[in-house]
């Protein structure tokens, strides 16, 4: 059975890169070596694999990759850290819900 992987890399500039491949080891080596000068990670090396998911179909992997690419930095962090509470929180309308730490600070301000 062939497997496909969705993965998240942490880049040296503090950003995340989300990708999909059928050979995770080879793809990580390509990212680290700067295989393509026009790629997102080329000038953001070194990169560090922070999360991956193994899928059994390419269509499933592509759908998950696209979904994650649309997520905020905070939501990706919640997934990587397996912080399910924040992941659910960040799944709500982002403009209506801030990080719980930010809400705590604003609710304790003086009148």
TrEMBL record:
Sections of the chain in a coiled coil: none
Domain GIY-YIG: 2-79
InterPro entries for the chain: GIY-YIG_endonuc, GIY-YIG_endonuc_sf, UPF0213_domain
Pfam family for this entry, one: GIY-YIG
Membership in a protein family: Belongs to the UPF0213 family.
Name of the protein: GIY-YIG nuclease family protein
Protein source organism: Aggregatimonas sangjinii
